[in-house]
Design goal:
By secondary structure, the protein is an all-beta fold. The chain has two domains: 140 residues, no CATH class; 35 residues, no CATH class. 0% of the residues lie in helices and 56% in strands. A three-stranded antiparallel sheet has the order 1-8-7, with no helix packed on it. Strands 2-3-4 form a three-stranded antiparallel sheet, with no helix packed on it. Strands 5-6 form a two-stranded antiparallel sheet. The protein starts with 42 loop residues before the first strand and ends in a 16-residue tail after the last strand. This is SipL SPOCS domain-containing protein.
Length: 241
């Protein structure tokens, strides 16, 4: 049994890590290979499913590192940490969209009527989940069966009294569905800042922000298209005498 010697931060991987190494069979033989024409499409192209406007109303409280008399500027940048579209079972024109991210803010403020300008940065997380009706359908999702108990077959034992426990088989299959891709095209942040927690000199260090975050998200999918121009298609024999 392998020991878990990780650092305990496996959930922080940005990409899916590879599986641990497995044993490799030493006596494996490939006895026969055959190639057949599959029912493939003539063309593979990226299809725009929809451009989606999505909104997140977000409120956050934070404290400046020191007391301030005035906020001079707030620079804002939107960054997504998650954008996933989940197909709705049985409906090729509907997905559930999950968007998460943060608004990075660089705040410049002054502590008094004179002196240097202070600089403070903070990330404000936000989430937006929405059901989306598509203008173009996604490719129907195909489901896999990788468990040998689903389609197992057994052979009759030599005594005819039951199944042979030493010989058995199964059929398993996997479909490799193209994911629905998601990217941000545009963002807008409309915010209201409320200051509080004043000291005896009228300075503050607490800020409450109410943000109306609007995003434009493009959903696309790489799809197989049958246009009849390939081998065996309607016009596949053009140009032949």
């Amino acid at each position: 049994m392998k020991k878990n010697t990780g650092c305990g931060h496996g959930h922080e991987h940005k990409h899916c890590p590879p599986l641990p190494k497995s044993d490799v069979a030493k006596n494996a033989r490939s006895l026969y290979t055959e190639i057949n024409d599959g029912p493939g499409a003539d063309e593979e192209k990226t299809v725009v499913l929809k451009d989606v406007y999505i909104q997140s109303l977000t409120e956050a409280d934070f404290h400046l590192p020191t007391f301030a008399t005035e906020i001079k500027t707030i620079r804002k940048n939107v960054r997504l940490t998650q954008c996933k579209a989940i197909p709705v079972y049985g409906d090729e024109y509907t997905v559930k969209l999950f968007v998460e991210g943060f608004v990075h803010k660089n705040i410049q403020y002054v502590e008094d009527g004179y002196g240097t300008v202070k600089d403070y940065s903070i990330d404000i997380p936000f989430k937006a989940y929405h059901k989306v009706e598509l203008v173009n359908p996604y490719t129907p999702t195909q489901y896999s069966s990788k468990n040998n108990n689903d389609q197992e077959y057994r052979e009759l034992a030599k005594n005819g009294m039951g199944a042979d426990r030493c010989e058995f088989g199964s059929v398993t299959y996997e479909y490799y569905n193209e994911p629905i891709n998601c990217k941000i095209l545009w963002s807008e942040v409309n915010q209201l800042d409320i200051i509080s927690n004043f000291d005896n000199w009228g300075r503050f260090n607490k800020v409450t922000e109410k943000m109306d975050i609007n995003l434009l998200i493009k959903l696309t999918q790489l799809q197989q298209v049958q246009n009849g121009k390939g081998k065996g298609g309607d016009d596949g024999g053009k140009g032949k005498g």
